[in-house]
Design a protein that fits this description.
Elements (H helix, E strand, L loop, with lengths): L10 H9 L2 H6 L7 H17 L3 H7 L6 H13 L3 H14 L4 H13 L3 H8 L6 H13 L3 H14 L4 H14 L2 H15 L6 H13 L3 H13 L5 H13 L3 H14 L4 H18 L8
Helix pairs in contact: 3-4, 3-5, 4-5, 5-6, 5-7, 6-7, 7-8, 7-9, 9-10, 9-11, 10-11, 11-12, 12-13, 13-14, 13-15, 14-15, 15-16
């Protein structure tokens, strides 16, 4: 039986992970799992620790563990921590020895794509044996490449055999956000259902709902969803980044600047902040060329 199917014992933790319910993942009781699924569940818990910034704690807990699954987690932790050279070296070794391992495929694919080795990431992920997360990552990469037909095909093929999968619904919604038009509304329904259901809401789900609202031109509704996300106990940098963009669009520059400062306090190297600094520098350079000359 597929452990991620409706009857599988990993369905609950798998859905919680992809809905962004990280505390539910950490609290998931693995005592009743079959031995073959315990490692898979533990990998998800480790990924949540890394996502929460508890990288050293995650690494310490697997210090004595062996095997490709845990080696891939170590590489991923190194990559997230900024030690990209060590992560790349570790993944290259795993590509030689364990490219058929599902954890190596997923985490290796993320690392390779992040390093700009897109063709290798796609090649690795394509080795999957019906892994929905691999399909979702392939879809993301195709969308980043502006290869919309390829992304549509990936999701369409998965839909044939995983019709009721949450992850397929989410991936299909990503594609819908790129298609636009009526597809925006379909994507909204998916994200709204996740975000507004008490048992599945999370910052990630609320951010996704807010972005669909934004694309539909419903700025006040987008603002409400983002405020929900920011009021949750676990403060999310992506919620802050999207709030900065939304406040700018709504002309609320004061609130936007407040969110910029909050974001800087949480993650000074966030891509949005780096982009703002770069654009500010370019503007200063350009405006300097047109400074008014003072007559002597």
């Amino acid at each position: 039986m597929d452990p991620f199917s409706a009857e599988g014992e990993l369905l609950t933790i798998h859905n919680a992970f992809h809905q962004g319910q990280y505390q539910a993942v950490l609290d998931f009781d693995t005592s009743s799992l079959s031995q073959s699924n315990i490692t898979t569940a533990r990998i998800l818990k480790l990924r949540v620790q890394i996502a929460n910034g508890d990288t050293q704690e995650a690494l310490s807990s697997i210090q004595k563990e062996k095997g490709p699954d845990f080696s891939a987690v170590r590489a991923f932790a190194q990559y997230v921590s900024g030690d990209t050279s060590s992560a790349e070296k570790q993944i290259d070794q795993l590509l030689e020895s364990s490219a058929e391992n599902a954890t190596v495929q997923i985490l290796g694919g993320i690392i390779l794509q992040g390093l700009g080795r897109t063709d290798e990431a796609l090649s690795l992920l394509s080795k999957h044996q019906g892994n929905l997360e691999a399909i979702a990552l392939i879809t993301q990469i195709h969308l980043q490449q502006n290869r919309l037909p390829a992304a549509q095909k990936e999701v369409s093929e998965a839909r044939k055999w995983a019709q009721d999968s949450l992850l397929v619904n989410i991936a299909e919604s990503w594609v819908g956000m790129r298609l636009g038009g009526e597809a925006y509304q379909s994507a909204f329904y998916v994200f709204e259902e996740i975000a507004q259901t008490p048992s599945s809401t999370s910052p990630k789900a609320l951010i996704s709902q807010a972005i669909t609202e934004l694309h539909l031109g419903r700025l006040p509704e987008a603002e409400a969803a983002l405020k929900q996300a920011l009021e949750l106990p676990q403060k999310d940098t992506e919620a802050l980044a999207n709030a900065v963009v939304l406040m700018t669009l709504m002309g609320k520059t004061g609130e936007g600047e407040k969110y910029v400062e909050e974001l800087r306090g949480m993650d000074a190297e966030h891509p949005l902040l780096r982009d703002l600094e770069e654009k500010g520098s370019l503007f200063d350079q350009a405006s300097g060329k047109y400074s008014a000359k003072v007559a002597s």
